[in-house]
Amino acid sequence: MKVKKIKLENIRSYRFQEIDFPEGSVLLWGNIGSGKSSVLLGVDFALFGLQKGNLAGASLLRNGEERGSIELHFSVEDKDYVIKRGLKRSKTGVTQDFGFIIKDGIKEEKTTLELKQKILEILDYPKNLLTKNKALIFRYTVYTPQEEMKLILTGSKEERLDALRKVFGIDKYKRIKENCKVITSDIKSRKKLKEGFVSDLDSKLVERLDKEEELRTEESKVLGLKIGFEEQKQKIEQKKEELKLLEEKKELLVKLKNDLEINKLNLEHKKKEIEDNEIKINEFSQQSQPEMNSVFDSNVIGELEKTRLELEKELRLILDKIQDFKTKKSLATALKDKVSGLNNCPTCLQQVREEHKSRIISEESNRLEVIENALNNFSGKNKEVEIKITEVKSKIDEGRKEEGDYKLQKLKFDQFKEKEGEILKLKNKNLEGRDNLLAIESKVNEMIKKIEELSFVGDAYNRLKGEFDLLDHEFRKKELEKKELEVKVRMVKERIESLGLEIKKKEEGKAKLDYLNKVQFWLESHFVKLMENMEKNVMFKVHEDFNSLFEKWFSILVENENLQMTLDEEFSPRIFQNGYDTEYDYLSGGEKTAGALAYRLALNQVINNIMSSIKTKDLLILDEPTDGFSSEQLDRMRLLMEEINIGQIIIVSHEAKVESFVDNIIRFEKIDHSTNVVT
Q1: Which of 284-288, 314-318, 505-509, 553-557 has the lowest average pLDDT?
Q2: What is the pLDDT at residue 134?
Q3: 236-249 residues labelled b (16+ CB within 10 A) or e (exposed)
Q4: What is the C-alpha to C-alpha distance for residues 138 and 130, in angstroms, rounded to an integer?
C-alpha cells in the first residue's frame, strides 16, 4: 500500500487542505501542535472509520463546524483507490455521515460497516478482524503513536499478551482450548444423560431373562391345554352334528304341526264355503226369470231431438223477424208524429207545406199497415211452431220413459243371467271342493301319523341339548383359559421385544457413552496438551524472531555496551545495565523512546513475516519516533532508516536533524488555529 494524497475538510485545525505524498521517506515537519499528527489520524479514519476507545468523532471534527470529511487516495498493487468518509455533528455528538470508495473510476456508495469490510478485503487483512480490533494489525504494522507503544511496553502483561496473540494469530490456540473446554463440558452433560439412560441396563437384561423363562412356562401351559382341547372339540362337533339332526326333526315336527293346523283350518273353510254355496244355489233356484218382451228403438228419440232442434231454430228466426218489424213500426210511428207537429224544416228552416206533410203522413200510414200485417202473419207462425215444439217434446218425454222402462227390464234380465252364470260356477266349485275335501282329509290324517312318529324328538333333543351345553360350557371355559394364556404369552413376547429394543438402545447408548469417555479422555489428556505445546512452540519461535529483531534495532539506536534490552517469555522488556537488572522507569527518555521504537519495528517485521499476504508491508508511519533522542541517537536514526527496507515511510517529527536523512519534506504551520502546508 502507498499513500498518494489526502484531503482534509473541517478536520481539527484544518479548514481545507490537500496534501500529496511522494514515494520513499517523507517527513511531516512542523512545530509541536502544528497539525502533523492530525494527518495521520485522518489516514486512520479514512481507512477504518471511528474506533471506540481510540478514535472519536469529537476529536476529529473542527470545533464550531457541523460537517467535515476526509478523502484518501492510495494504491495497492498498482491499483488506485479513493475512499471518503464524512462526519456530522448532532445533539448526541459527532457521528459518521456518508462514505464511498472509488476503484477504476467506479464509485460505490457504502455503509460504514461495508466500507470497513471493503478495506479489509483490499488490504487482505483476516476476515475475523472486522470487530472492535479492526485496526489492530494496521496499528502494529503501519501506524502506532509512540506514546501508545510505550503504554504497550509498560502496561498489563495479560493485555499485551492477548493483543500479541491476536496479531500473531496465536490466540486461535487459546480459542481452541476454550472451545475444547466447552466441548468437554458438553460431553460431560451428554454423558450424564447417557449414564442416566443406561443406568438400568443390567436390570433390563435380568428382566428379559425372567420374561423369557416366564414365556417358556406359559407356552408349556398352552401346549398342555391344546393336547385335550382337540379331543374335546371333536366330541363337541359330534354332539353338534347329532343335535343338528334332532333340530332338523324338531323343526320338521313344528312345521308338521303348523301345516296340520293350517290344513285343518283349510278343511273347515272349504266345508263352510261349500255350505254357503249350497245356500246361494237353493236361494237362486226359488227365483223366476224376468220377462223381456218389449222392444225399444233408440233412433226414434234421436229423430225427435233433431226435429226439436230444427223447430227451435225456426222459432228463433220468426222471433227475430217480429222484433225487426216492431222496430220498424216504432220508427214509422215516431216519424208520423214528428211530421204532424212540424211547421219549419229543420235543415233549411223554410215553412213546410200542408200537402207535403199530408203526403209523408200518408206514406208512413201505408207503411204501418204493411208492417202490422207482417207482424200478425209472423205471430201466427210463431204460435204454430211453439205448438209443434210442445208436441215434439211430449213425444220425446214418452220415448225417454219407454227407454227407461226398457233399460230397467233389460238390467234385471241381465242381472238374472249373470247370477245364473255365477250359480253354475258355484255348483262346479262345490263339486271340485268336495274332491279337495277328501284330499285334505287324507293329508291331515297322514300328518297326524307323522307327528305321532316324531313325538319322541322333544325329549331326545332336550336331553342331547343338555349334554351339548355341558360339553360346550367346559370347552368354552378351557378356550377362555387358553385365550387368556395366549394373551399372556403375547404380552410377555411384546415385553421381551420391547425390552430387546430398550436394551439395544441402551447398549447403543452405552457404546456412545464409552465413545464419549474416550473422546473426553483424549481431549483432556492429549489434545489440550498438544495445543498447549503447539502454542508454546509457536510462541517460542515468534519470541525468538521478535527478540532477535528487537535487540538488533535497540543496539542500533543505543550505542552503550553497558546497557542491553531483551524480551522475556511474556514479551516484556528486560533491561540489564552493568550486568544487573534495571527497572524500565530508570531509563532516560531517549532510551525509553529507543526501546519503544525497537519494539515497534520488531513487531512490524514479525507480523509482516507471519501474515505474508497483507498489502501494507510497503508502508510505515512513525509518529514522533525520536522524542527525547540525543543528537547522537538522531545520528543513529539515520543508520536505522538505511537499514529499513520499506517503500514508503511517513515520519512525523519536529526535529530539524531528521531532514538530513529523508527523501521528502512536507512543512506545516499553524496560524490563528488553522494549519496550512508551507511550500
Answers
A1: 284-288
A2: 46
A3: beebeeebeebeeb
A4: 13
pLDDT, tens only, 139-184:
777 887 656 666 667 767 777 777 777 777 777 777 788 888 888 8
Q: Write the single-letter amino acid at 307.
A: T
| Helix/strand/coil for 130 | coil
DSSP codes joined into one string, 301-352: HHHHHHHHHHHHHHHHHHHHHHHHHHHHHHHHHHHHHHHHT--B-TTT-PBP
Domain 2-142+616-678 has CATH 1.20.1250.20: no
Candidates 1.10.287.510, 1.20.1250.20, 1.20.120.80, 3.30.930.10; correct CATH number of 298-453? 1.10.287.510
- Assigned C-alpha cell, 255: 312345521
CA end-to-end span of the chain: 26
> What's the CA gap between 535 and 529, in Å, rounded?
10
Per-residue pLDDT tens for 446-472? 878 877 777 777 777 777 777 777 777
Q: How confident is the model at residue 348 (pLDDT cuts 50, 70, 90)?
A: low
Could you tell me if 77 and 615 are in contact, meaning their C-beta atoms sit under 8 angstroms apart?
Answer: yes
The Cα–Cα gap between 182 and 112 comes to 34
Q: Which amino acid is at 338?
A: K
Contact predicate 218/485, CB 8 Å: yes
| Three-state SS at 297 | coil
**Residue closest to 641 by CA, chosen among 601, 669, 605, 668:** 601
Which of helix, strand or coil describes residue 576?
A: strand
Report the SS3 class of residue 48.
Answer: helix
Whether the full predicted model's pTM is greater than 0.85, yes or no, is: no
Which cell is 146 given?
A: 509512540
Domain boundaries, the chain: 2-142+616-678, 298-453
Helix (H, G, I), strand (E, B) or coil at 126: coil
CB-based contacts of 299-303 (< 8 A; 24+ apart in sequence): 300/399, 301/396, 301/399, 301/400, 301/403
Provide the residue type at 81 as one letter.
Y
Cell readout for 112 is 460504514
- Identity (one letter) of the amino acid at 573? P
Q: Which residues of 646-656 are buried (b: 16+ CB within 10 A; e: fewer)?
A: bebbbbbbbbe
Residue tagged 216519424 (cell numbers): 335
Neighbours of 70 (CB within 10 A): 25
Q: How far is the C-alpha of 47 from the C-alpha of 63, rounded, in Å?
A: 23
Residue in the structure block whose three cell numbers are 203522413: 361
Yes or no: say if 253 and 457 are a contact pair by the CB < 8 Å rule: yes
438's grid cell: 277328501
The grid coordinates listed for 609 are 513475516
Three-state DSSP class for 69? strand
